[in-house]
Amino acid sequence: MAEAFALRCLGCGREYPAWSVDYFCPHCGFPGGSLEIVYDLDAPPHPFPNHANFSLWRYEALLPVNLRFAPPLRAGSTPLYAAPQLAKALGVRILWLKDDTLQPTSSCKDRGTAVAVAAARKLGRHGLCCASTGNAAASLAGFAAASAMPTYIFVPKTAPLPKIAQLQAFGARVFRVDGTYEQAFSLALAASDKFGWYNRSDGLNPMVVEGNKTVSFEIWEELGDVPDAVVVAVGDGAVIAGVCKGFLELAQAGLVKRVPKVFGVQAAGAAPLAQAFHRFRGGKPLLPAEGPATTIADSICVGKPAAVVPAVKYVAKTHGDYVTVNDAELIAASLELARKAGIFAEPSGAAPLAGLRRLLEEGLVSQNDRVVLIITGSGLKAPQAVLGHLPEPPIIPPDIQDLSEVIKACS
Amino acid sequence: MAEAFALRCLGCGREYPAWSVDYFCPHCGFPGGSLEIVYDLDAPPHPFPNHANFSLWRYEALLPVNLRFAPPLRAGSTPLYAAPQLAKALGVRILWLKDDTLQPTSSCKDRGTAVAVAAARKLGRHGLCCASTGNAAASLAGFAAASAMPTYIFVPKTAPLPKIAQLQAFGARVFRVDGTYEQAFSLALAASDKFGWYNRSDGLNPMVVEGNKTVSFEIWEELGDVPDAVVVAVGDGAVIAGVCKGFLELAQAGLVKRVPKVFGVQAAGAAPLAQAFHRFRGGKPLLPAEGPATTIADSICVGKPAAVVPAVKYVAKTHGDYVTVNDAELIAASLELARKAGIFAEPSGAAPLAGLRRLLEEGLVSQNDRVVLIITGSGLKAPQAVLGHLPEPPIIPPDIQDLSEVIKACS
């Protein structure tokens, strides 16, 4: 079954045979989220999952590329934890955390990268590229290194050098573009066209959403069912598009009877998708979204999200919604997640916890719903965003009596 | 079979029933590596592995604590990758990398922590403690948070505040001791005695080595056999002790016919165990080891290793050895590992790669040996140690012609 798919334009609906187009519709060039990959789901995929494989390739039967093209790093199969301490703090009955930070480069982006790099290998491309400074670029650089493929990363010249250095450590060629992020994105696209590199940029490459959707397959497999609600942070929209698509495909294939509501959480200072979703729900046409972008959660600080159409339409199909949270809530959520679940996430990774509080307040999620929060990126990627807010611990003499006094005073 | 064990003093050899002693021999108080846990291995353990469990608890039949006491985070079951690019660069036939960074707190220490926290739960202890600033403390703090157990960490007052902040994020109570590391270690021990906390300190708690040994079970299970040589970085000695013990137990239980040679790699500036090993091989008695400690590889910067006896004697039993590498080699190895395998490790994590070069030069490992390098800690824990050495990438205008010129000039 793998590789039996068509490419459908999210704008005009035209379909193209598998592997005939890389990114945009050749007819209308619709820029709101590239092409979507569609399968014939009248018959359930088989084997699904393939228990012999311990990675996202266990879902090969619903992936566009064969396992034999998979890059050598293990993406997917991250743990799902019950979170009783957090459930109690939030007053919900059942809460799980999908720790998607436990991947080769410590973010959920490794799912999309794994499938995109497999596609590049299948297509015989001799180079990879993307425009990003964040988790997607680190992920591409790591998987490319393991696959012995040269990689070219385009970043705006304002990108912080420590983030760039990690890409260089993986051997990626980094170009700092004297312009905006949009200009870096356009240059990456022109370069992939001119040099034949395969472009992994989110919202451009339909393979990325295919990898991202496997997180939903895992949640379904681990629970033996789907939950009532799934909450995930949203930047450019490619991750939430994948989360929704995974559950929608499970339903189409007859493997589940219903889909969970999928909720997107954006930072209040960078919420163009939340705004686009609410305009669309209000009956307005869905246009490319753009807005200001300021938040400490750099992984979701996106002013012009590339995957606007699937990020809005797929969420609407699941009967989900979008909420926003401010930076103080993001920092508090990051600390609460560490303290009550033992997961140290970057602010965007903890955003679903802050978002769930908002969803409960607004009545969009009820206390009896069974909820999964997807934790998308490790706190080690940007520790100071959170850790700068903690007090210095006390200095004590090396004496058990003094220690006893300190402990007595604090308890 | 689980929990059927005895505690044996590494100094005087006296044995004690399971759970009757926590740390040191009550008879001789031997300080060179606490007690060792011994099993009756006349009959092979069963089920081993338990395929229903995807964590180190699949080896419950050779662990001292039952799965039902396991803390909620998933330790173990990390990937083993073939590394053809590195094999080629080093001129060895077969090379694998065990990526032990893919654990809940991004280091191999999570294995020992998982079993130690399980033991604390079994014993009904109401608090956890350790002396460390590094990966062991972060690991304990994370697992304690997930287990809703209070944790007390003792660090010398010179410990860097960013490392401490991560412990605080997990809700650990951190005490900065106005004294040396040894004084912090002693205060932690006095505090665990006085307050009934369970002490996870490496080289003190025998449960830690039991968790650490599961990395060898995984290597055996994934390969369907044991390799010829296994290389791992060494700081206080508890990790290499576990690596050796795992293979030795597989042989005792009749599951493998031979044990691989286990090689320890120390930083040249902090090599007391390498020195102790070579003195011991030379026929001198094995004494507590001590020496200077200066290296950029902070996770193995240990001047007075606590687990000296098992770290020396177990390695000798496997017919392994110790080598040292300097800081420049550690930085180069970290970059080479990222570029040729897609794994970004901290300098200590990449030390086995530098060590393997030395082992090949010295003829201790041959080019036909099948070798496993254990990668013990993520590079995200201390990125500047490596990334500070990379050049700034070029700034280019947002123009495909200019890009073409730059690429032409560099290729």
Write structural notes for this entry.
- 2 copies of one chain form a homodimer.
- The first copy, chain A, has 411 residues and is of the alpha/beta class.
- Chain A has a domain of 204 residues: Rossmann fold, CATH 3.40.50.1100.
- The model of chain A has no long low-confidence stretch (mean pLDDT 94).
- Chain A is globular and about 75 Å long.
- Chain A has 14 helices and 14 strands.
- At the A-B interface, helix 3, helix 4, strand 8, helix 5 and helix 11 of A face helix 3, helix 4, strand 8, helix 5 and helix 11 of B.
- Strand 8 of chain A pairs parallel with strand 14 of chain B.
Which properties best describe this structure?
homodimer, 411 residues, alpha/beta, Rossmann fold, six-stranded mixed beta sheet, four-stranded parallel beta sheet, globular
What is the structure about, briefly put?
Two copies of one chain form a homodimer. With 411 residues, chain A is an alpha/beta fold.
